[in-house]
Amino acid sequence: MRLKPYFLPVAALSYPWLTKEHPDPRGANLARVARALKALLSHARIPRLGVFWDFGSLHQHPDPPNGVLRTEEQNALFKQGLGCLGTLYSQQRAGGTQGTRGTNVAKYFDRGWCFTEQSWAGLTKAGYLSLDLGKMRGGKVYNWSSLRADCTRGGGRRPPLLPSAFAAELEKKSFTNGKDDKPLVKRLYEAAFEEQFGKATGLGYGGLGWGDAEAAQLAEVLASGAAPRLETLYLGGNKIGDEGCKALAAALGKEGAVPRLETLTLFLGANRIGDEGCKALAAALKEGAAPSLKARDAPPPRTWQLRRPS
């Protein structure tokens, strides 16, 4: 039985253009995306799905080699659309990434826009809602569950970056129009970061393969006080060890870092936290870190299940 949706999910696609003239000249990405969308629509609560695909969703220049460019009105709409990208990619519905190569062969994470889109998608989205479509297997027929399993396997999703860290990384990336695009995406990233973390009450970063370095990066974000409303933090099923736990403990101990945090899920057995990490966390809590904390290890909260928003 198909159930009525409680919302319209939107899939925001992130991918490298395969040539400068056309993002997908032979339709390889289109075929992959079509298979993924069919799988997503097999979910009982997703009878319909919105898709943001820059090439079709934003006005492009019709024929640049022959001097046919966007009209003034189309250009205004294009710029307006660019201003909404941070909201689109950072929202809590699925976004796919792809690594298909063409003649324009810069790697995905070396491209400024791809890096930015992935960074937006990695802010507060639950782990299973950020899908790498490049991991789909040829010839396999997918449903929602198998697509999620294949497209999140092996980790690969990076932890969120502070706006300052994002800006520093961005300097290493390539843009076709770097002079104009870099300042724009820096502003858009900072705005999305503040919006998403500012309203986040639950963060689910489970099963992403994160280790100590990723835990330390997340700790920097938490220590900054970016998530003042955070109540639940789920980090189960990763590879976090003592050093990562120490970094998290130090972050929780920062005054005003996570004043409303009530549940911290580490699943100590699934992670790799030993005595040193546990002692550091215990010491921080004894000193008053995370004053609202009630549970330090619990089953995954229902927050991460697909449900009707409250």
UniProtKB/TrEMBL annotation:
Region of interest (Disordered), ranges: 288-310
From the UniProt record, which GO molecular function terms apply?
GTPase activator activity; small GTPase binding
Give the GO terms filed under biological process for this record: nucleocytoplasmic transport
- Key word Lyase present: no
The alphabetized UniProt keywords are: GTPase activation, Leucine-rich repeat, Repeat
Q: Which InterPro entries match?
A: Leu-rich_rpt, LRR_dom_sf, RanGap
Stored Gene3D superfamilies: Ribonuclease Inhibitor
Native species: Emiliania huxleyi (strain CCMP1516)
User: What's the protein called, per UniProt?
Assistant: Uncharacterized protein
- Check the record and name the Pfam families matching this protein: LRR_6
Q: Which domain of life is it from?
A: Eukaryota
Look up the record and report any one GO term of the cellular component aspect: nucleus
